[in-house]
Design a protein that fits this description.
This protein is α/β, with parallel strands linked by helices and 330 residues long. The protein is 37% helix and 22% strand. The chain has one domain: Vaccinia Virus protein VP39 (Rossmann fold, 3-Layer(aba) Sandwich).
Amino acid sequence: MLAASNGGKLCLREENPNKSGVPVGFGLQTTMGILLRLKSLEKIVNATSVKICGKRFAIYGDDDYLRGVGEEFEPNTVSMFALLSDKESCVLDVGANIGLTALAFSQICRCGQIVAFEPVPRTFQYLRQNVSESGVQNVKIFNFALGSSEGSALMQGHPSNFACSFIADNYTIPADDHFAQRVPVKRLDDIFSDLSLDRVDFMKVDVEGFELEVFAGGRETLNIYKPIVFLEMNHWCLNIYRRISIPEFRERLAQIFPNIYAIDGLDYLDYVDQRNVHYINYHHVLKFRFMNLVAGFDREDILSRLSRLRTTQTFRPPMSAANADLACRR
């Protein structure tokens, strides 16, 4: 999920080695133990009531993650989504986790379409269950990662918080309390025609340092539809998992998007403007500020939306189903 929100998730801590884990790929005996624990986990997991956009949902997910979410899911992040998208928007939720952002988009973009991607099989089970039991009708889900080339990639993480799972080519955690599992990867440009969308207006990308790979596989789609993109910038994930420095990340991102803004609470700075770069980089790396970016192609549209950031801090609760259906027809 998104850095500096989501219950404060930064995915930096070393997990407690005594916790019950579900590692995959570290030997036959360990794998057999995983399967037994997964079976037991399926039987004991209970739903947690979480308010999303003013509406309560029964949410299934990892214990640590749901404890961090609390009673209401990231109202400030939801408000940001509401500023950057519209009720008719077609949205790609890349790194959907258990579906909280997808459920938020389903209400914010109540007349639009939401397509959510989540590659981790266990997390995808939660996503499917949460979307199915929510009753929303405008969310489609897919169980694969988006990347720069078709194939597979090694996902790693801790089973108590699948939201921090990551893809790394040359970094492994050889610990019995972590899992490692290969997942399918597809290019956005290759599969876009399968999504039943006629455009993309907004993208949320939260993939623990894998963002540039997602964009590399979707350059044609990005250039055609020119969506607004909300993405995480996390120097820990970029450096450790992808071996990419913050200056390199910014430079490569600027080759894709002509406009990039670094978000810090209710403030934002132009990340393309060289006068702001050192300030943003310094406070990001040392203070964990500016953890999210807004990128895109239409500068005036982005600035018009961001200018309302200080005056819009909460999302207005959704209208009734009947009124929402009427509004979508107008």
